[in-house]
UniProtKB/TrEMBL annotation, chain A:
<keyword id="KW-0592">Phosphate transport</keyword>
<keyword id="KW-0547">Nucleotide-binding</keyword>
<dbReference type="GO" id="GO:0005315">
    <property type="term" value="F:phosphate transmembrane transporter activity"/>
</dbReference>
<protein>
    <submittedName>
        <fullName>Phosphate transport system ATP-binding protein</fullName>
    </submittedName>
</protein>
<dbReference type="InterPro" id="IPR017871">
    <property type="entry name" value="ABC_transporter-like_CS"/>
</dbReference>
<dbReference type="GO" id="GO:0035435">
    <property type="term" value="P:phosphate ion transmembrane transport"/>
</dbReference>
<dbReference type="GO" id="GO:0016020">
    <property type="term" value="C:membrane"/>
</dbReference>
<dbReference type="Pfam" id="PF00005">
    <property type="entry name" value="ABC_tran"/>
</dbReference>
<dbReference type="GO" id="GO:0016887">
    <property type="term" value="F:ATP hydrolysis activity"/>
</dbReference>
TrEMBL record, chain B:
<feature type="transmembrane region" description="Helical">
    <location>
        <begin position="105"/>
        <end position="132"/>
    </location>
</feature>
<feature type="transmembrane region" description="Helical">
    <location>
        <begin position="74"/>
        <end position="93"/>
    </location>
</feature>
<dbReference type="GO" id="GO:0055085">
    <property type="term" value="P:transmembrane transport"/>
</dbReference>
<comment type="similarity">
    <text>Belongs to the binding-protein-dependent transport system permease family.</text>
</comment>
<protein>
    <submittedName>
        <fullName>Phosphate transport system permease protein</fullName>
    </submittedName>
</protein>
<feature type="transmembrane region" description="Helical">
    <location>
        <begin position="138"/>
        <end position="157"/>
    </location>
</feature>
<feature type="transmembrane region" description="Helical">
    <location>
        <begin position="252"/>
        <end position="274"/>
    </location>
</feature>
<keyword id="KW-1133">Transmembrane helix</keyword>
<dbReference type="InterPro" id="IPR000515">
    <property type="entry name" value="MetI-like"/>
</dbReference>
Amino acid sequence: MSDTSAIRTENLNLFYGRDKTNQALKQVSVRFPANQLTTIIGPSGCGKSSLLKSLNRLHDLKLHARVEGEVYVGQDPIYRSREPVPDLRRRIGYVSQKPTALPMSIYRNVAYGPKIHGRPSRQELDELVERSLRKVNLWDEVKDRLNAPAADLSVGQIQRLSLARSLAVEPEVVLCDEVTSALDPISSERVEETLLALKQDYTIIMVTHLMPQVQRLADHVVFMYLGDALEQGPASEVLDAPSSERARDFIHGHGGGAKSPSGSVRLASSG
Amino acid sequence: MNRRYVEQYLIETLIRLSAVLVVGVLVLIIGMTLYKGGQVLINQPSVAFTAPGPLYLLGGSGGFLHAILGSFAIVLPATVIATVLAIASGLYLQSDYCSERFARAVNVLLYVLWGTPAIVYGVFVLTLLIMLESRSSLIAATFAVSLLQFPIIARFVDEALKSVSADLKETVYALGTTRFETLRLLLRAALPGVVAGVIMGFARGLGDGAAVLFTAGGGIEMPSGLNDPATTLPILIFQQASSAYPSVREDAYAAAFVLMMLVLVLVAFSKFIARRFSRFAQEDH
Ligand SMILES: Nc1ncnc2c1ncn2[C@@H]1O[C@H](COP(=O)(O)OP(=O)(O)OP(=O)(O)O)[C@@H](O)[C@H]1O
Ligand SMILES: [Mg+2]
C-alpha cells in the first residue's frame, strides 16, 4: 500500500506563455516518498508553486501553460492515465498559496467537496465539517456562525478554511502551498500538528518559506532554484550537508536573514 | 499664487459647474414628469387602470392600461430570452471550451451591437416579417427587444465572469469538480454582476421605443395574443405627445410617470438583489 501514493516526476518541463518562452520548470526529476512530509524550498519565483500544481494537473486549466515529461502517482502516469482528471484531483488535494473562500457560507465551503463526490447524509456532513474545521484549529472560532459568508473571515481564517475544505474530500496526497503564511504561531502550530498527524495515512508535500518549519516538519526536502530541482533527499542530508553552494547559502542564509521573510517584512514596516 | 493651485481651482470649478448642469437637467426632467404626471394621476387615477376607448387618442374616453400591459407582455419575455442566451454565451466565452482570441472578437462585436441604434433592430425584424409575409405582433416585438437587450446583458455576464478570480477557479477545480460544476460555481460568484446586467437590459427594453415601433403594431387595443398587435409605453407616450388634443397630451405625462416609476422600482429591486448575493463574494484582501 505504501507505494501507491509515492509521487515522482521525470524530466518535467513547464512552459508559460503563448510562445513557451518562459520556462518555469527545467527537467525536474524528483521523488516524493509515500507517507512522508516533503517540503519544497527555494527563493521566490523559483517554481515551487508551479511544481506543486503540475502534480494534480492544475496547469491543464491554463491556456498558455504546457507540461512536458511525466508525473507518476504510484505506478500511474497521471498525464497519460485514463482516470478522469476530476477524480485524480480529488485524490490529490491542493491548497493554493492564496487563501480563497468559495462564494457561500463557512459550512458549505467545507461541505462543497464531499457533496460533489458523494451523497453524505446531513449528519455525516455535519460531523465531517466539524472534524475538518477542528483539524485546522478553526472550529471554535466559527462554530457559532457556520452559516455566515466565508468571505467575511479574516485572511488567516480563510487560509485555515481552505485547508479544511481540501481535507474534507479525504485526499490521499495533500499538496499545500505556504498554508501557514498568514497564521499566528499558535494556529500555525496547530496546522503543523494536523499535517504531522495526516502523515500516517497521507503523502504530504508542502511549500514553505520558513526554515524553522522545514526543520520541524520535513522528512524529505526538495530545493528548487530557477526552475531546477538542485537538491533533494532526506531532510537531514539536505539541511545539514547541502551539496551545492546555492542551497547552502539559502539554507543557512547570509547571517540568518534569508531564513524568515516575515522577519524582513517586520523590519521594513517598523523602519 | 502658485500656478498649481490656480490650476486645481479652475478644474474644480469646472467640475462643479458641469455637475450642477447635469444634475439640474435631470432634476428638471424628472421633476416635471413627476409633477405633471402626478397631477393627472391624482385627478384621474383611472387612466392607468382602464382600457382605452376606440377614440382614446382623439380625446375619447378610457386610459392607457393597454400600453402598460403591452410593455410587460413584450419586455418580460424578451428579457428572459435575452438573459438565457446571454448567460449561455457568456459562460461559453469565459469557459475553457473557447479560445481567448475568439472571445475577444465576439466581445468587440457585442460592443458594436450594443452601440447599434434600436431602430436598426426594429427595421431588421420588420424586414424578416415582410420576408415571412407576416405582420407586426407582440411576438415580433418581443424578438426585436430581446435582440436589443442581448448584447447588453451578454457584456455584463462576460465582465462579471471575467472578474471572478483565477484563484477561485483553481481552488474549485482542485477539489475535483468537473467543468460543469466549476462553471456553476463561477456563475454563482458572478451573480451580482449578472443581476446588474439583467436589470440594465430590462430597463433598456422597457424604455425603448424604436425597436418596437415597426414591430409591435402599435394600435390602441388591449394585447390579446402573441400574433396580435400590441403597444408599449414609450410608443404610447410618442402617440400621446403628438396628439392634437391637450387632454391626451397631458396623459403623456401620466404615462411617463408610470414608466419612470417602473424603472425606479426595478433599479431599487436590483440593488437589493445584488446586495443579497454579493454578501458571499470575497473582497480582495
Ligand atoms: N500563470 C503564469 N503565467 C506566466 N508565468 C508564470 C505564471 N505563473 C508563474 N509564472 C512564472 O513562473 C515562475 C515560477 O513561478 P512560481 O509561482 O512557481 O514561483 P514560486 O516558487 O511559487 O514563488 P513564490 O515563493 O513567490 O510563491 C516565475 O518566474 C513566474 O513569473
Ligand atoms: Mg508560490
